[in-house]
Design goal:
It is a single chain. By secondary structure, the chain is α+β, with helices and mostly antiparallel strands. Strand 3 and strand 4 form a beta hairpin. Helix 1 crosses helix 2. A 7-stranded antiparallel sheet has the order 1-7-6-5-4-3-2. The protein has a single domain, classed as START domain (Alpha-D-Glucose-1,6-Bisphosphate, Chain A, domain 4, 2-Layer Sandwich). The longest helix has 19 residues. InterPro entries: START-like_dom_sf, START_2. It holds the Pfam family START_2. This is START-like domain-containing protein.
């Protein structure tokens, strides 16, 4: 298996952290912007796009702050994806921090994918 590169992205979002957390941590919230449909059974989340399914295991979460998944296809690796809410202590600006892994030749494409999906999230939340 080809080694993947870790990357992080920051998306400023003008919304309350508690509302944002609902959209990144619940199947119904994720279904609105990340995938066509999301189902969960315990710690397994099934993400559905255009009829194809990918299953991810919930690796950890901290209420109101972050959620971390590992795709089942990446089991046995250190690869994961995490969405973390960061609030600036002084300005109170809210950002969604995304950590993910990608093969080098798909890095730009994966970053663009995150840009597009988070743009959809901002649109749903009414954030600019």
């Amino acid at each position: 298996m080809e080694a993947k590169t870790k990357f992080e992205m920051e998306f400023p979002i003008q919304v309350s952290p508690s509302l944002l957390y609902q959209y990144i941590s619940t199947p119904s919230g994720l279904s609105e912007w990340y995938a066509d449909n999301v189902n969960s059974r315990g710690e397994l989340f099934t993400f559905i796009w255009n009829g194809s399914e990918e299953t991810a295991k919930l690796m950890g979460k901290k209420s109101g702050e972050r959620i971390k998944f590992k795709w089942m296809a990446d089991e046995g690796t250190d690869y994961f994806f995490e969405m973390r809410i960061q609030v600036d202590e002084i300005t109170k600006d809210v950002s969604l921090m995304v950590t993910d892994f990608s093969s080098e030749d798909e890095l730009d494409e994966n970053k663009m994918l995150w840009d597009n999906t988070v743009s959809e999230l901002k649109h749903i939340l009414g954030s600019t």
